[in-house]
Amino acid sequence: MALSLVPSLAWGDETSLVEWAKLRVDEGLVRPIAQNEGTRKSFSRSRPAPRERRVRITQTSTTLDRHGNAYVPFAVDVRFGSDEWQENDVVGCAYRESGALFVQIGDEYRPAAFLLGKNVKPAPGVCEPKPEARS
After folding, report:
1. Which candidate, 17, 48, 58, 103, has a CA 20 to 30 Å from the CA of 11?
2. pLDDT tens-digit map of 63-95
3. Any domain includes 78
4. Per the structure, how many domains does the chain have?
5. 44 in any annotated domain
6. Considering the domain boundaries, does residue 81 fall inside one?
């Protein structure tokens, strides 16, 4: 009987991890970006603000990075005037311990504050899986 409870507990942990990551990305990235767009001048050459954004957690378990820290990868999809979602507008990861968010810019990952106009440097080794040990 005790063994029958193990899968449900694992599923519950997995669900809470996904929910935590979605909430963290929404509060730490999606909402601040939307607020920042609200202060933008109407005659800007930048792309128009999307009508809607959604957060997707692309992996339901944590992964260890090169430094041994656990993270969860995510993607933010956008929808403008049409009904079709444009996937992976923003790709990054959320760190479980610290709550830190990083986004992919080119081949590098930077703190999410970069998307809010902050001049932050790339963070080597974050959001990159730890290489497997070779025997």
Report:
1. 103
2. 999 999 999 999 999 998 877 899 999 999 999
3. yes
4. 1
5. no
6. yes
User: Tokens 């979605």 map to which residue?
Assistant: 22
Q: What is the pTM of this model?
A: 0.81
Bridge partners for 73 per DSSP: 93
Domain for residue 19, yes or no? yes
Q: In sequence order, which residues have a C-beta less than 8 Å from that of residue 92 and are 6 or more positions away?
A: 25, 29, 73, 74, 75, 101, 102, 103, 104, 109, 112, 127
Q: Is the pLDDT reported for residue 12 higher than 60?
A: no
Using the structure block, give the residue that is written with the tokens 């933008």: 40
> Where are the extended beta strands (E) located within 33-106?
52-57, 63-64, 70-79, 86-95, 101-105
Q: Are 99 and 89 in contact (CB under 8 A)?
A: no
Q: Output the CA angle 73-38-34, nearest 5 degrees.
A: 15
The range of the structural domain enclosing residue 71 comes to 2-39+49-116
